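task queued by scheduler; priority normal; single chain, no ligands, no partner chains; default sampling; output format set to structure tokens
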Amino acid sequence: MVKESLAYKIIRYVFLIIASLFVIIPLVPLIFMAFKTGAEYSATSVLEPPSNFLNTYNFVYAIKVGKLGKAFINTAIILVISLTLQVTFTSMVAYVLHRFDFMGKKVVKLLFTLTMFIPVVATQTLIFRMMYAVKLINTMWSVIILYAGVGIVGIYIMLNQLDSISKELDEAALIDGAGYFRTFFKIVFPLMKPACTTLVIINGIGLYNDFYIPNLYLNRDVQTFTVALYKFFGSMATPFEIVSAAIIIGMVPIMIVFIFLQKYIYNGLAGSVKM
């Protein structure tokens, strides 16, 4: 290994500190405002700490009046069902592409890759009409079906995992009389747990933060957290200290997931890039 010079180390750490400050500094006043009262917010600077960090009124108000608790439950239901379907479908598609040779295999891969270049907005007119025709508008199933689709990034993550799973396991299971479905779900799929975890985390964060699809397909009675948060402070002229509390409530689950499972995210992304 090449030994790093002291100057290089100093430059690297200075750059990392500056980059971290760009991320952290905007969060500091947001946290301060979330714990301030209305009068305190109007009378103090945004960079001045609150007098009482135990003031939870803004958080309680945001959850009750903004119905963020119900929105959290709706979001959880949508994510659990859609990610379960997505992981299952993606792993099955990747298994077929990895283990079998068939006419049009390269075309199938190309078509999945091309979907990356199609804007979501460009297809929504047709998809909305289809959902309306089957009467799924204003139900969670419309969002679940759209979220359960197979993406090329997920396929590459699964393909990378399948490279480390020997084909001899499949052959041994087939010789013992197991069919392809049983071989996949009993032998191969359990060994793909790291890739499945990576896919759940990466796509779960993206779907949790998604605003466009839920806002388009769901009504006011069935909202995800991002939509409920937007409509809470967008239409009611809610004081910004309460808005800050609501934003922090939405950030906490994602931060917890990222802190404890970040190694899976990095490993999964590294694997997909390697492909």
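post-processing summary
- The mean pLDDT is 84.
- The radius of gyration is 23 Å.
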